[in-house]
Task: structure prediction
Amino acid sequence: MKIFLDTAELDEIRVAARWGVLDGVTTNPSLFAKVGGSYDGVLREICGITAGPVSAEVVAESVDGMLHEGRHFARLAPNIVVKVPMSEEGLEAIARLKAEGIRTNCTLIFSANQGLLASKAGASLLSPFIGRLDDVNANGMDVVRELVGIVKAHGLASEVLVASIRNPRHVAEAALAGAHIATVPHKVLRQMIHHPLADTGILQFRKDWDTVRAPGHHRVSARAVQPERVTPKPNAAMSGQTRHGGRDVAR
Ligand code: G3P
Result:
């Protein structure tokens, strides 16, 4: 399963890229609002950090508006994927952008049927929002399982991108469900790295290593392994050998 970062924060994206786990990035107007500046500028910078797909979301509600924004984003970099919301207008925009060779990510998917329609319209990526479903007492992962099942059973060209992920368990379950991609907030990515036993294990190894290498500890150890001095036995002395440290040593 590929891992995307769900953020517009450049530093978070750089860090994930350095960790060697970054396959792409998703952004949306809310994530961009936390960063500010120019959306185009931020998108160009992100596309310079990762060669993977970078989702840029349209905010227009009309088909023409979505097409206008989508074409604009697609010109910014070759790895831009235009994010289009699930709606009647969105489906039409997805179909028309597909006809122009522009890849799309259908966002705000909350049911397997919505995902099926987005795939038929030509979306490359299907984004079910699992956290928001869980928030309203539904089971977001059920939608992921159904959608993955449909895509695989019918050999559809789209990939299921699990979005609105809130915790590391969501990621493991998305992978087990066979999702193609999980897009995760930076916080969740860090939670996936850390485990209390791994963290304390690292500290303990370091502590033991430092203890054994401490100068005082070394001298004590050296004394402890000093060979025992043994008085030569008369017969050994006569034969020209002496017992030293438990070994026969020729004089
Ligand atoms: O990229 C969109 C999605 O991941 C939103 O997540 O936490 O706002 O539901 P959230």
In short: Residues 6, 26, 28, 129, 131-132, 163-164, 183 surround SN-glycerol-3-phosphate (CB under 6 Å). The longest strand covers residues 80-85.
